[in-house]
Amino acid sequence: MKVLIVFAHPEPESLNAALRDVAIASLQEAGHEVQVSDLYAMNWKPSVDRADFPALDPGERLKVGAASHAGFVQGALTADVKAEQEKLRWADMLILQFPLWWYTMPAILKGWVDRVYAYGFAYGVGEHSDRYWGERFGEGTMAGKRAMLIVTAGGWAEHYSERGVNGPIDDLLFPINHGILYYPGYTVLPPFVGYRIDRFNDARFAQMAEALRERMRSIDTTAPIAYRQQNGGDYVIPTLELKPDREEAGTRGFALHLTPAG
Fold first, then answer.
1. How far is CA 24 from the centre of its chain?
2. What PANTHER family does the record point to (predicted)?
3. What's the first-to-final CA gap in the chain, in angstroms?
4. Which sign does the torsion angle of CA 102, 241, 187, 79 carry?
5. Tens of pLDDT along 63-85?
């Protein structure tokens, strides 16, 4: 399997960097090919602006979606964006690795998504009609590929539990897992999350490293998150609301978009 790790942490000597190296070594030992996009080391430009669209007429108002589509179709996106898109085409598996900052990914990684996920490449594909609403949420450019998150958090696991003050970790990561990975078609694996990382000692790191090795050994067999497919019959087209007869009694929020067990 070909694996792309998009890594977002500014400190080369961080625990995150050490975990990244553990993941790379484990994947390579299992026979996988690995590429890494280290965004801080690359000095990745995180913000979308006119410079991203060299073919845009200087007198034309910037509409990011339209400019993104035109640039993609014309092959006129910037070299750094096209290079990352080629890595995504190459990879069978995408791993986004980052520390959880203010309940989400670092800005540099969000900027990677904003710029690389061009209209026509990661979204805006497929037929839109009264029976089918584009190739997304289970379909799309990345269909058939796998993806997952490696995330570290400073808080306790209990802080991110069902009754924890931060809210359930699966809810916090839903916009990334469902909205960034599943949207363009990836089969999304459960995230690997490390807690209380600011209070690690050698023994705790060794324990987490072994758990990560085990996850990397099983990336091609791990059961994915059971998200509902948009065009699979569970949603009303074109409003994209879940049909009332598809939900289990008492289910609310993001859990509505999971296929019931069994």
1. 18
2. NAD P H OXIDOREDUCTASE-RELATED (PTHR10204), NAD(P)H DEHYDROGENASE [QUINONE] 1 ISOFORM 1 (PTHR10204:SF34)
3. 30
4. negative
5. 999 999 999 999 999 999 999 99
Contact between 215 and 192 under an 8 Å Cβ cutoff? The reply is: yes
Q: Residue 216 corresponds to which tokens in the numbers above?
A: 């990397």
> How far are the Cα atoms of 34, 84, 138, 250 from residue 91, in angstroms, in the given order?
9, 11, 17, 39
The residue whose two tokens read 């989400």 is: 104
Q: How far is CA 49 from CA 148, 198, 224, 241, in A?
A: 29, 35, 35, 33
Instruction: State the average pLDDT over residues 99-115.
Output: 97
CA–CA distance, 71 with 67 (Å, rounded to integer): 6
Length, in residues, of the chain? 262
Residues in CB range of 125: below 8 A, 6 or more apart: 134, 135, 136, 140, 141
CATH class of 2-224: alpha beta
3-class SS of residue 181: helix
* Phi-psi domain of 102 (left: phi exceeds 0; alpha: psi -120 through 50; beta: other): left
Give the gyration radius of the chain's Cα atoms: 19
pTM for the structure as a whole: 0.94
For the chain, percent helix, then strand, then coil, each to nearest 5? 40, 15, 45
For the chain, the domains span 2-224
